[in-house]
User: Fold these one by one.
Assistant:
Number 1:
Amino acid sequence: MSILSFLGFDDQLRQSSIWDIHDNLILKKDGSVSAIYHVPSRVVNSVDDEAKESFKEVVFSSLSGLQDYKDFNIRMIPVPQELLDKFNKLSLDIDWDSGVSELADEVLHGMMYNLEDSLGDVFEYKYCIVVPLKSIHVSVDLKSVMRQSYRAVRNKTMSYLGFSEDVPVDWYKRYDVQKELVDNALSLLSVRALTTTENVFLNRLQYLRGLSYDKDMEIEFVQGSIENLDEVNIEFENINILKVSNLGSQSYVGLLPVNNLPENISYLHLQEEIQTLRFPVESNFLVQFSLSKGAFSLLAKANRSRQRLKNTMEEADESESLQKTTVIRSRFLLEDLQERFDEKEPMVSYLNTLIVTADSIEELKSRYEILFSHLNQLGVGLVRANADQLYLYYKNMIGEVLDINDKNFIQPTTLEGFCENLFFITRKVGTDVGFYIGRVDNQVSSWQGDFELAIDSSNNPVYTNLLQANKQKVSGKVTNNPHVGIIGETGSGKSFLTKLLFTYHSFLKSKILYIDPKAEMRKQYNKVLGEHKKAGTNVALQKYIESIDFVTLDAKNPVNYGVLDPIVFLTGAEAVDLADSMIDSLLGKDNNPVVQAGYLDSIDKVLKRRASGEKVGMLHVFEDMQSENNKEEVVNAGNLLERIVKNSILSLCFSDGTNDAIGLDNKITILEITGLDLPKANSNHDMTKTQQKSLTVMYALGYFCKRFGERDKTEETILFFDEAWFFNSTAVGRAILMELKRIGRSFNNFMVYITQSVHDLSTTDDSTGFGTVFAFLEKTEVDDVLDYLKIVKTEHTREWINNMTMGQCIYYDTFGRKERITVDGMFPEIMELFNTVETKLQSVA
């Protein structure tokens, strides 16, 4: 037995080498110290190639600054999303004292259960980078090297004899300067030093891969004694499969090193590809900068390999044999490597290990096959490394670095080539806390209408809470604009998503109004309510529907006369402006300055009568216009207006003032108007008289919605405006739209604007736009959508949008992120409410 075996050095790999943890520093038992930083993921749109290339340059620049430290370690770690905490936070904003509470409770619990059931592991990827501040590798002080080596032997000997050395007091203070230097080197990546608690958990997590655990308990466990850090049972099953168990939970762990890469690694983007898999894959890179000279430098190894290839080629020439293509390519690559050395490009060697976990050996093998197959398509080769599993397990611990004994699976390349892995990026859209509405789509090609397959193929849930848009202290937001645009052709899923967002957000502490000009929701909601009442099922849904105040504006019912009369529900200049716009819309070409002056005078007179307490309305304006002292043109116009209004849908807006305006004090209101004949969006045909009347009513409704949003600054209000395209059809409509937008942030009013064309979202005289957009497919406007969302127009991005199937849209959030998502209606019982003529997503579940 060797002295090393006698001292137990052959077992050194099989135990934690960490001696102490403080802030983002770890002190190992050999005296070396490493600093750990969290690297915030840069959200890059999946088809934004320019942004990816730009970010790779940032990463290259940052990592170049670590050459003096020789080693660094990049870790991409799948971390549980902690759904319970996510939905507990959301529940704080639920209106538990209203009729929505029972359904809201079922939805929140159902979301958590269904996500865990369908995804198994609900996780997100986080990045960290580890830099050794002091080790045998980087020390330039020979005495320091000898001191560290001596300490390692001494500590092992003392441990064998039953003694131990205490952790040096305030050891971490000696590294303040080195930490500051690393902070500066990595500043372009916006790194953040871990806290002690985060550091403890990250190191403990290495031993808990795939296991069930209580995060707080595990942190306390290690903080009680650092010796508990590696307290798990590790054994082999079936000879070469690692099995880890702890407190009754067990996991099978497979460590798969990357053994070969494609010759051309440009645009490899390995880290991005790994994130598209449905199961979590930890990716760990142990990286070492190459020495510029010496027997162990990368250049020396390359020269030795080149000499061997030269000999092989000369032997082939002498025997008059054909040169193998692989030999020629290898010779070329080695010569290219030499040139890069000559140009002083940073060179690195690295060990990349992918770590997979599973609950059973069968599941582990299945994940092996999927991972091997997926990466093989990229030209990336993995090996099972059966004989090296334990070595890889401990070699990939935090604080480890490559040494001269690490020869297998090492990949030499330039630092620039290394950055082609595309580190520190993620694909994310939506809010951290919110209602689950779907999943990020992982592919550009079409799902051929099978949106359920698109959902099943993604591991990336999308959450949203529209009310976060104008809230302060939400990190990363690029706009506080609270308004939402939902666009797309009929049948694409636009109406389905709209009603899904309406239902979920009606659970919150807010008042919500849905304008339904197609008058389709009340009938369906009452139908569903009747079916459940008859069957005695789904009481929570029954109570929810019963809590909704359905208001139907039917011009055939005298009760509704004048509920949108501008003189009844508006005052002052607003009443004058709306009345002027409505009369001008009705008169059209028959209007002229004389007539306009006449009816404006009459409006002023009627408003004064109202101010004195008299009940008056727009019909009194027409009466006054017909008085004997007015000019003939004004009298004729008053007579014409009275005749146009009589027995038509305009009775809603022109009345004698007897009825009051609409009252909207209920938490949830669905307001529908029957008898509307709205022209089709983007129609080039002249409007019929009934269509003109319908638009006039909609103008009045727009002003009413403005009043809804302005009434209480302290309370959030959400306005869903379906068929809202008409606002941009006239100057008056555009002015109303701008008013609705302007009251948004200051009055806590959120407008959800549903229309077909992206052109309806902006006008030349309006720069406010929409903070959030859901863009469903409109085949004639693909380039226009790309322009609006500020996405570079390429064949790739056009294909990305053109290939969207039913139920898919581009989600542009308030953080400036854009991704193609598949909408997921998780609850069939709620989806019954959306079974209207327009939506085709009745079977989403």
Note: The longest strand covers residues 123-134.
Number 2:
Amino acid sequence: MSLLALVAACGRASHDAQGEASATMLPAAAQCVLDSPALAVGSTPDLVVNGVAYTDSHQPDAPGPLETPRQNVGAQPDDGCRGNEGFRFGSGLYDVTGPIGGDATGHADLAGMVLPPQAQNGIHTRLYARAFAIASPCNGKRVVFVSDDHAFVTALEHQEVMKAIAADPLLSQYYGPDNVMISATHTHSAPGGYGDETVLPNLPAGTPQFINDVYNYVQSLVLSTSPYDADNFKVMVDGIVQAIRRAHANLEAHPASAPIRMSIGELLNANRSRDPPAYMQNSPAERAQYVDADGHEVDVDKRFLQLSLVRGNGSAAGVINWFGVHPTTMGNHELLISSDSKGWAGLSFERMMGTRYVPDTESGPDGSDNFVAAFAQSDEGNSIPDLFVFDKDMDGKDGPGQGVPYRFRHGTDDPYDLDQPGYALGMQKATVLSGTKQLAQALKQYAQGSALSGPVDYRFFYVDMTAITVDDPALATSLNYPDLPASLYADEPKRTCAGAVGVSKLAGGANAPDLGAAGYACANVAPVPYWDAVRHHYNGIFNGTQSVIADLDVVRPLTIPFPGVLAYDILTPLLCATEAQLPQNDCQAEKPPLAPATTTPAPIQILRIGNLAILGIPWETTTMAGRRLRQTVLDALAPAGVDTVVIAGLANAYFDYMATREEYTAQLYEGASTYFGPWQLAAVQQEARRLALTMAAGEPAPEGIAPDALAPGDASPVTIDTNAEFGKIASDAQASYAQGDTVDVSFVAGYPGNDLRTMASYLYVERQDAAGGWTVVATDKDPELSFVWHGKPDPVSRLLHVSAGSTAEAIWRVPANTAAGTYRIRHVGVSRASADAAPVPYEGVSRSFAIEGTPARCP
């Protein structure tokens, strides 16, 4: 069977709304992904790793109900775009990789994982902003969607991107807050420090650097938060704007219209729920609508929605897809910057399609097609890639310390314990596994599906989430369920309140447990009892780590016992008796408030592309909450010809989680992280419906409220290097290697954070060509080539911002399909003698070495 026929057949095997297949051919390398053994992981009841069986009770996915386009929707607006299937589009990507070094160098640690500290010391993959500009010739409107390789989008980041667009003479003619959506992929392995994600407040601007350093160091040890980092913030904002600029240039260089195909498929065995006890609180009748062919409940969304942007001549601008799963496969212990599984999938698709990662010329973007693959985020609130996290062990046990060991929960043998080699390099095999599944689904659906039809449109406004009364009569019947206790819905009025996080927030999610424990509530009103299950089953994961890990610049971090369950047994009644009774918390219901949360206005946005609506919200939405929210918005837009709604999560700001009223009662991680109380989802449904109704009626967006004016922080400190022979080989390559081996080379290095090497690389693997020149075959954006900086910080040098005796390590895992030949590894960096001195470039080159052997067909 030909590749194209195979891809088309795979698409028909899923619940896919198919149109005629495009004649666009995928490269031969795609077949390696479609044949990958990674696709079978989780598809049987067994888990066997390295010949050892760890479970035989895993529940594989089966085909189930899938949200496909709604039938018999209303007519599209009669504005000249009815039936339109021609769109102009463009794509662009740009590097947004921030500084290495974390708090030890005055920069922000990695953001996303609750387990401190995470001072990044290298790069697994570079981070990119991927932008898509889409215009409708029939009504002259256009929109931009940006998928950004970071944990979330902050209000400050959004504000500064919009300021930069407004100041750009070209972009400001077309784009602004109303029609530009910025959504994060939610990787937990990207630097933070770009706005309002800290728990403790930033110190006032102008605070002496020494005081800032001590304050931030203590904060990173205890809370794993990310103080403001001007260097990281700048590269993020600049990169997003530059990606938009490239997408615009690409659109403008192609005046001809072409269809955009939407394909909806079902991706199985790629995600699972991390909070089954919370999902079980939802209405039995509602849950019964989501049961798979084997009779099992589908408690995480399996829908994989993809847009293929391919021109009439077959030239491809790229793809955008949405699938809800946490990109946390690198683990909460790794210290490398990484775009995780979604970034891995995007980079791999782009490599197949010959994507160029080069800076612009002096004249700016040339507008030529350059394939961009965005694996964007959707309703991933309770969806994780840890397929075996709750499975019983071979003895059928699942109590604390039982079940599948933590390091095998992804189905791989990646290191996890502190004393294992490669521990700090993350769970890279697991990242490949999760990324391969998403990539394979994208390949199956590439250039498939039905052409979008209709206009381009957009609406945007801000709401005050702290003071919303839910009084829309159209929602009244959806705010209670007759098969659950009426007392759950007795609140009148149903309103939101000041933001607060619950005590179980500090327990972390089931895929990254921290100290403390989950499930602590002020009232036992959950419809389904869960206490015994979360304390004594689920492998004890809801009991947290029961310890604190302290990394005090010693060879091995210290593990300090912390009886989280006992501590929460004592703390929770105190919080319920004090904090929960305060006026600002009087509507938090079952939540024991631990700390206040942001009160910045919340952005809600809808982009319409034909019959598809993209709902941008600043939350991590649980599966059932996402189902309800999509239905609410689709009910409002269907009369105007919209038949499909997809949620773009973590968009334009960040307000943590959104659980259903029923899930909230259990106060697991998601409920404890639902800031604005039990009626938050209902309030968002009401406000999103209000916005959607204006779009359906062709009216302006509701007035909303003004966003806060936020101020960036101080400049990041400069780390200086002590005198050294920069670029000198510290540890050289061997004379020869075979495919599958690992090449490990080290160089005397300067501090890499003083030159981010944006749209370039710290490392290059090069192959000698027939003329004696050198051709680049891998850079530090590629997951097979890791860049690790060994900075050897100590308490004195970190406060003085001095780097002494550091090295740059290149770890190249030679792909199995690498051609035989002569290779070398080159390192590029800068050194700085003082904070006022200009950076001095240097370069180091390893010895030449041979790759010997016959290359395999696949990597």
Note: Residues 720-852 form a domain with the Immunoglobulin-like fold (CATH 2.60.40.2300).
Number 3:
Amino acid sequence: MGSLFRSEEMTLCQLFLQSEAAYACVSELGELGLVQFRDLNPDVNAFQRKFVNEVRRCDEMERKLRFLEKEIRKDGIPMLDTGDNPDAPAPREMIDLEATFEKLENEMKEVNSNAEALKRNFLELTELKHILRKTQAFFEEAELRHTQALHDPSLIDENVGLLGEEGLLAGGQAMRLGFVAGVILRERIPAFERMLWRACRGNVFLKQAETDMPLEDPVTGDQVNKSVFIIFFQGDQLKSRVKKICEGFRATLYPCPETPAERREMALGVMTRIEDLNTVLGQTQDHRHRVLVAAAKNIKVWFIKVRKIKAIYHTLNMFNLDVTQKCLIAECWCPVADLDRIQQALRRGTERSGSSVPSILNRMVTREKPPTYHRTNKFTQVFQTIVDSYGVASYREVNPAPFTIITFPFLFGVMFGDAGHGLIMALFAAWMVLKEKQLMAKKIDDEIWNTFFGGRYIILLMGFFSIYAGFIYNDAFAKSLNIFGSSWTPHFSEGDFNRFEILMMDPANGTFSQSPYAFGLDPVWQLSYNKITFTNSLKMKLSVILGVSQMFFGISLSFWNYRYFQRKIDIFCKFIPELIFLFCMFGYLIILIFYKWVHFDVTRAHQAPSLLIGLINMFMFKGQEFPVFTGQEAVNTFLVLLAVACVPWILASKPLVIYYQQRKKQHMHPSLSIQSGDLLNHDRSQAIRLDLEADENSVAPVDTDKEQTDITEEVNWGELIIHQAIHTIEFCLGCISHTASYLRLWALSLAHAQLSEVLWSMVMKIGLNADGYTGAILLVPVFAFWACLTIAVLLLMEGLSAFLHALRLHWVEFQSKFYEGQGYKFLPFSFELLLESHPQAED
């Protein structure tokens, strides 16, 4: 398992880079992605660092690229993504990139400005065209009504406008009235009309009509609906008032000739100008499209180059300058196993820069806690993420991830436990795994999809283990499969079936064959009324067995931590009593479960005692009514007393041993003085680890695997005793509560099976019970409805529930036995990680 079982050994190194070679060396380290730099200028403002100007230039280039990207997406032009990962450009190439981006931005701004001005002129001419067309209709209608009024004076009263008795149709007065024409947004017409009526006291006449088609806004590009209006009034005072109202409602007024001939002449001129504008607009759009198509071919590569340059200068700002101002000094964490690769990367960077002075890499001595680094691949990454979500492993402690690869999907399968649903899940995950490269190339920008796709391997394993558990439970879509032939053979007469509604098959009276069912549950239980009673008992016992076994395994892993870190005191004062306590409490119960399954066959099933009642009697020191074996009462008493003795063992042994060691070391080294705050023990047990033989002037790195001498002085006894008491109470109560918590394996398995059975009986049976053509036709929508409910409820909702419960069992019940999770993650300077955290938006 390599570094997945225990994190990589890390070392703190010091780098000496020549100023002219620093950029190339950092670039090579970024491509390698195995170095985590430390900020040596934490108190220096970001604007006062050496390469702040270069970072600002990169920010400006990024801004210009985002502007170009926005324009490209606005036109719907696909951006070419060849998957290339170019190297970081040399510093001198920044000038060429800046010039290119500046030229493209200026050209695009000029094109946009010209296009906006042309569109604004086009909009004005279009609105004027609609005004001339609509007002011509208004005047023709007025002339027609005037002619009708001359022949029939009674129509005058009906057509009097808002001007009172001196209406529009009162002879030649219509031509002496003033008017204004314009356009306004369609949704503002009602309020506009009310304001005119109130402000002008009804002394104006408004006529409006909607435009034939929406008009394009030259600024936003949106399509807006407008209306053409003409307002008739009399007098300069009303004219001024009408114009102010139009201005307030943002209506656009246009000049409109009074005579039909002038209107026709203006309309012809407007149409000619519109045609010319259309030609110019088309040429402008073609030029804009050509520029953006050329930029779209390189914009993704440009983004990568700029972000690499920016990352390099950000990293260089973390370095220090030596007194000569010719050398940059850096400190970094890196894996010991990769030091040779880092040295090679530094040599490549020095050669690229043309420097004749090699870069120097020195390992440093430090007592600082190193970062935690686990090497993962696309399969193990998701399991490591699950563990890291609880807490990053402390440096070099046992990592739960390799065990989680199997135990997590297995416990999920125990709770899910349906071969049919597991098959659907496995097929979906297998499709994502097989189409992995094609799906990754699509770069689907959907959070739910990315969650499923990122967990494709864990979903595949969960599906496989669900199929396995489904065969154990003999459950597939709430139905049992009779693959090997049932081992139950009923021996009842026809009269028995007529007399009794329910018959019990007695295993002791010849209705059970001598050979059990080959694998899993016998399918005859599907027809039994007491199916739930039997499966409850079986699944409950399996849950206890699996839960206690995983807790035993977790405590066993703590031994490897204590042994690796040379904490012998924890082995004798924590590991051994905890193991004994858990065995006395529940390990003994597991032995009784297996003994009961093996010892009590069908002929002695009525004699089998209740293990739950027996466990209660054990802790109450009561005798067993039906002992499982001879001498069980004495064994029970011994185990209870041993478990009780483990409590003070865990509580007091470690403080006493530390106190004894303290007195012994004080006697051996009376002149040794140690500060009480200098504590290196991981659990704050106030044990100070020093290597007395180490040379203080040595520059060799500290070897964490080396046997060290424990010296304890000036221990804070109050804090130590409280910490140990909390740990003791937490462990002892946790053994009980965690074992009960594993019963969720039984509860969720039962709930899933019953929900699946209810869904089958209440939905699917509707289509299956109908006969003839009606049943065949009805079966299609019923099956579709049943399939949708199965996927939505049983697969997604129940699957998510089982996933979360399996997550809790690992985080709390399993990892709490050995895992601290108090480290911090190794975050190397890596261009790959940088580009993953800044993905390009999709085409």
Note: The CA atoms of residues 89 and 305 lie 6 Å apart.
